[in-house]
Structures are given as C-alpha cells and as structure tokens.
Amino acid sequence: MMTHAIRLHQAGAPELMQWESIALPPPAAGEVRLRHHAIGLNYIDTYHRSGLYPLPLPSGLGQEGAGVVEAVGEGVSEVAVGDRVAYATAPLGAYAEARNVPADVLVPLPDALSFEQGAAMLMQGLTAQYLLRRTYRVQAGDTILVHAAAGGVGTIMCQWAKALGATVIGTVGSEHKAELARANGCDHPIVYTRENFARRVRELTDGEGVPVVFDSIGKDTFMDSLACLRPLGLMVSFGNASGAVPLVDIGVLARMGSLFLTRPTLFTYAARRSDLLAMASELFDLVVAGTLRVEINQRYALKDVAQAHRDLEGRRTSASSILLP
Known about the structure:
Blueprint: E1 2-8, E2 17-23, E3 31-40, H1 43-50, E4 59-60, E5 65-72, E6 84-87, E7 98-102, E8 107-108, H2 115-135, E9 143-146, H3 152-163, E10 167-172, H4 175-183, E11 188-191, H5 197-204, E12 210-215, H6 222-227, E13 229-237, H7 251-255, E14 260-262, H8 266-269, H9 273-289, E15 296-301, H10 305-313, E16 320-324
Parallel strand pairs: 9-10, 9-12, 10-11, 12-13, 13-14, 15-16
Antiparallel strand pairs: 1-2, 1-4, 3-5, 3-7, 3-16, 5-6, 6-8
Helix pairs in contact: 2-3, 2-9
C-alpha cells in the first residue's frame, strides 16, 4: 500500500524535511502496521533533523505516535488488529500517515484517553516518570529544580512532583511561561532572562541548595545548575536544547561538594518491555485520575512540520505539541 511520510535526505534546516509518497510493505514478523491518528513532536526530533544526532540518510523522523493497529505480522502476541495503542521508543519514522513498528514498543491506550493525549504525553510523560521515580526518587519535603518548567516535560514534571509533595523551583524564559509553570504546580518560577537562577535557588533554599537539578537545556545552564546543588546533590542532564554540554573536568564535581552527575535516556530506562508497560501504566493512571493534565497548546498538520520545528527551536511553544496526519 502507499502512504505519505516526511523524509529527510540531508541534515540541516527545517525546510529540508520532505513530504513524500512512499510504499508501505506488509508488516514483517514481530511488526504491526499502525494507522496514526496523532503524532508527537519532541525536541529530540530537531537534533535528528539538524544533524546534532547524526542519522544514516535518507531517513524518517519522529519517535512518538498514537493510532489503531491495522495489520499484524507473524508471531505478534502483544496487540491485535483494532487495538488503540501509543508508542514513544520505536525506531524513527513516526512522521507518517501509517507505518510498520515493532509490536513490543506499543502500549495499550486506555479508552479514557484520546489519541491526541496519547501522542502528546507518552515520550514526555515517560521521561518525567523515570526522572522523578527512578533517576532521583522524589519524596515529600524535597525541593527540586526543573529547567524549562513550561515545556512539555517540564509541565508534567511540575504537576507530578507537586503531587508527590515536593516544592518545585522552575526556570522559564518569560513572564507568560512563568504563569503557565505556576498553573502546573511550579511553586517558584524563575525568569532566567531577568535574574540569575543559581543565586535565586540559593535564596529560596536559605543557602543550602537543592538535592537534584533536572536540566534539559545543556550548554547554557550546566555550570550554574551545578552551583544550585547542595553537597552530594545529583545533576541530571537529560537534554541539550541550547547545545551539547562541553567536555567537563570531573574534578569540578569534587570541588562543588562531591556531586553526582548522570546523563540518562528514556530508551535505557524503557528497554525492557516489563519496565515500559509499568511506566506507561503509572503515567496513564495519573492522567485518567486527573492528577496530571496533558496540555496541548500547539497542533500542526503533518505537512507543516517545518513550521513546527521552527517554533520549537525558537522557543515559541509551550506545554505539548502534536502533528495531525
């Protein structure tokens, strides 16, 4: 059968992404054919498109989507034709009307959740899950720092950490985003363009610092993030929105208080299907219960993905964004 997909033949600017008609073969053993109803847009997509994370070209793009299973290959037992499913750890290629994906990356989407919610939250929500529940298990009474607190991951993390009983400090780029972060559970939004966030964190913690910093910004915030930590604190660097962190002399971790540093990825934490299902189940239960709200503030036609990337990189988006095939 034929379908349409976004293809990248040369890494670089957003306009290099091409809308093409492609042949979709029957699903192979262990695969299913999935008809997308919504597709997730994530910052990592811009790394793949720009060449920051090099790909063998030509390539598809996108790692997250939600839809209905149309056909199954040999040996598939995880899902059946007609199932509503979502995924966030599949091989690249989500920017498509339909695609073949490994069955073992799919999670069942509860009837109480829409396809748009599934596509908007899974990668960001699973990221929030492993960061808050496994990388550093947030407890009631903790004070934590979350960068990009008005972004897709940030808004979910603020809500979740607040529900766990933590005090949340967050950095944002504008007063509008400060209000958005505050509405999602951030106790102390810091507009980093207006004040030094490391100094402000020290003020808010009576000079003590925080036990953990969740940093998706990278190069521009790395050293100041370390300065926010109390002795034996954990620096969680999980993204590069401002560029890759330069090489670090690990002696700085000793000088700043025997600090810990980790660079985690969702794909490691969700590599085992049993872990993936448990993570998704916890996330979906909280959304269905109303503890977590999924805010979709931008919707784009899949054909218009270049504009979506420009908005994402220009920090003109907030909360979650989706693509509609």
